[in-house]
Design a protein that fits this description.
The complex is a heterodimer of chains A (about 250) and B (about 240). Chain A contains eleven helices and no strands. Chain A has helices at about 1-5, 10-30, 40-55, 55-85, 90-100, 110-120, 120-145, 150-160, 165-200, 205-215, 220-245. The chains are: A mainly alpha (about 250), B alpha/beta (about 240).
C-alpha cells in the first residue's frame, strides 16, 4: 500500500540502493575472497581510477565507434533490402530464402570466420555487428512493408501520388514502427556481438578491458567494466527510444 | 447532360473467379448513380476497376470519352473504412493530395481549414484518426477526396460502418456538399433506402458474376413516399428472384 503511493523514480532508486547495500553487506561478511568478490566501494574506486587515467574513455570510444559503424551499415542494408523484398516479389523470391537461411546463424558463431577474413582489427568487429543488426532490421522492415494496406496505396494513387511518393509518404511512414522495433532489437544484438568480438581479440574496448583485467585477477576492474557496459547499453537504448518517439507518435502502443 | 463516365463491356476476375461479367454503365455529368446488389456480388470490384486499381480481363473505362488505365486525380475514391492514413493528423490527411502537387503552404492551410470548418471538425485538426469517431473519420475521408476537386467520386459503402443517426447526418452532409460542387458519383451500397434517397439512377446487380438486372431512374424532385415504396419493392423482388 505504501509502495503504491511512492513516486516511481523513488522506487527505482530505492531498489538500486537496496541491491548495492546487500552487495556491500555480503562482501563485508568475509565469506568470499575480497579479491574475487570485491565490495561495491572497491568497484567504484576501480571505475574512478579508469576514469582518472583516461583508459575508460579510450575503451568507450572504440566500443561505441564499432557499435555505431556496424549498426549504421547493418540497419541501412536491413531497411533497404527489407523495403525491396517487401515490395518486389521477384526480389523476395531471389534473395528472401538466402537471407532466411543465414538468419538462424547466431552472429557469435561466425566470429572465428570474421577474424580469419578481416583479422582482429576494426573491420571484423564492424562486420560482425552489422551482420547481427541486419537480420532483425530486415525482417521487421519486410513485415512492415508487407503489412501496408493496399487501400492506403490506392488512396494515395487516386490523389495523384507517384511511385516515389508512395514509397516516401505511404510505405516508409507506415513501416516506421516496425523499423524502429527492428532497430531497437538490433541495438541489443549489437552489444552482444560487440562483447563476443572484443573478447575474441582487440587492442582496445570496454570488453577488451574486462578480459585483460581477468588475466591479472582484477575482479574489481572486471565488474566496473561490466557495469559500465550495462550503463552504456541502457543509455543508448533510452536515447534511441526518446529520439524515435516523435516519429511514431501516431502509433497506439498496445 | 453529356456522358462523363462509361464502363464498357467490363469483365473482372478476382482470385481466378469471374466477379463481373460484360457490365455496361453510362453515367452523365453530375449524375448520382448507386449500385445495389447482394453481398459478394462484385460491387466493390466494379469500383476498384473503375478507379484503375485492378485491371479488367475485358472491357474499358472512359472518362470524358478518354480511356483510363490507371488511377487518376480526376476520379476520387472513398472506401468503406475511410482508410485515413493513421500516421497523419486530420489536417495532414486532408492536405495530403494538395501537398503532392507543391501547392503553396499558405493556400494549403487556407483550403484545408475551410474544409475543416465546413465539415465541423474544428478543434480536431491535430488529432490522429484513431482518436476520432466513425462519423468524424467519414468527414475527414470526404474532405481528403473532395478538396482535390475530382470530377467523379467513387464510394464503396461509405456509410456502412455508421450508426443510424450518424448515417442520416452524413447522407445530408454529402447531398449538400456534392450538390454545391456538381460532382458525378458512383455509389456502392447494400442499403436500398440509401440508394433511393441519394441517387438519380439505381443499377440493380445480379449475384456473382455481377451483371445488370435493371436500371431504375429516380426523379428526386418529384418522388413521393409511395413511389419510394414501389421502387424498394421492385428492387427487393429483383434481388430475391435473381438466380
Amino acid at each position: 500500500m505504501i509502495l503504491k503511493k511512492l513516486h516511481p523514480t523513488f522506487i527505482i532508486f530505492f531498489s538500486l540502493f537496496s541491491l548495492i547495500t546487500l552487495w556491500e553487506f555480503v562482501s563485508r561478511l568475509g565469506i568470499y575472497n575480497a579479491n574475487l568478490f570485491p565490495s561495491p566501494i572497491r568497484v567504484l574506486e576501480a571505475l574512478f581510477s579508469m576514469v582518472y587515467t583516461g583508459e575508460l574513455f579510450i575503451d568507450t570510444y572504440f566500443s561505441l565507434l564499432r557499435i555505431i559503424l556496424g549498426f549504421l551499415i547493418g540497419s541501412l542494408l536491413g531497411v533497404t533490402l527489407g523495403v525491396l523484398s517487401g515490395r518486389i516479389r521477384l526480389f523476395e523470391l531471389f534473395f528472401g530464402h538466402i537471407i532466411n537461411l543465414l538468419r538462424p546463424i547466431p552472429p557469435i558463431a561466425i566470429v572465428p570466420l570474421a577474424m580469419l577474413w578481416f583479422g582482429i582489427g576494426e573491420s571484423s568487429k564492424v562486420f560482425l555487428i552489422a551482420f547481427g543488426v541486419f537480420f532483425p532490421v530486415w525482417i521487421s522492415t519486410h513485415d512492415g512493408v508487407r503489412d501496408v494496406k493496399k487501400e492506403y496505396v490506392w488512396s494515395a494513387k487516386s490523389l495523384g501520388a507517384s511511385d516515389r511518393q508512395i514509397l516516401t509518404k505511404i510505405i516508409l511512414p507506415y513501416t516506421m514502427p516496425f523499423i524502429i522495433t527492428g532497430l531497437r532489437v538490433g541495438i541489443g544484438i549489437a552489444f552482444v556481438v560487440l562483447v563476443a568480438s572484443e573478447l575474441a581479440g582487440a587492442y582496445a574496448g570496454v570488453m577488451y578491458k574486462v578480459s585483460i583485467s581477468y588475466l591479472v585477477f582484477r575482479a574489481d576492474k572486471m565488474i566496473a567494466g561490466l557495469i559500465w557496459l550495462g550503463i552504456l547499453g541502457y543509455s543508448v537504448d533510452r536515447l534511441f527510444v526518446l529520439s524515435t518517439k516523435r516519429l511514431i507518435r501516431w502509433y497506439k502502443e498496445s | 447532360m453529356t456522358e462523363k463516365l462509361r464502363i464498357r463491356n467490363l469483365s473482372v476476375k478476382y482470385d481466378k473467379l469471374l466477379v463481373v461479367k460484360n457490365l455496361d454503365i453510362s453515367i452523365k455529368d453530375g449524375e448520382f448513380i448507386s449500385l445495389v446488389g447482394s453481398s459478394g456480388c462484385g460491387k466493390s470490384t466494379i469500383i476498384n476497376a473503375t478507379a484503375g486499381f485492378i485491371k479488367p480481363i475485358k472491357g474499358n473505362i472512359f472518362l470524358d470519352n478518354i480511356q483510363i488505365n490507371q488511377p487518376t486525380q480526376k476520379i476520387g475514391i472513398i472506401f468503406q473504412n475511410f482508410e485515413l492514413f493513421p500516421w497523419k493528423t486530420v489536417f495532414e490527411n486532408i492536405a495530403f493530395g494538395l501537398r503532392l502537387h507543391s501547392t503553396g503552404e499558405k493556400e494549403i492551410k487556407k483550403r484545408v481549414m475551410d474544409y475543416i470548418k465546413s465539415m465541423e471538425l474544428n478543434g480536431f485538426e491535430n488529432y490522429y484518426p484513431r482518436q476520432l469517431s466513425e462519423g468524424m473519420k467519414e468527414r475527414v475521408g470526404l474532405a481528403r477526396t473532395i478538396i482535390n476537386n475530382p470530377e467523379v467520386v467513387l464510394m464503396d459503402e461509405p456509410f456502412g460502418a455508421l450508426d443510424y443517426l450518424t448515417k442520416l447526418k452524413m447522407q445530408n452532409f454529402l447531398t449538400q456538399l456534392l450538390g454545391n460542387k456538381k460532382i458525378t458519383v458512383l455509389l456502392v451500397t447494400h442499403d436500398i433506402d440509401e440508394a433511393i434517397k441519394l441517387s438519380n439512377k439505381i443499377v440493380v446487380l445480379s449475384k456473382r458474376p455481377a451483371r445488370i438486372l435493371d436500371i431504375i431512374p429516380i426523379d428526386k424532385e418529384k418522388i413521393s413516399t409511395e413511389d419510394k415504396i414501389k421502387i424498394r419493392e421492385r428492387i427487393l423482388h429483383l434481388l430475391q428472384n435473381d438466380g
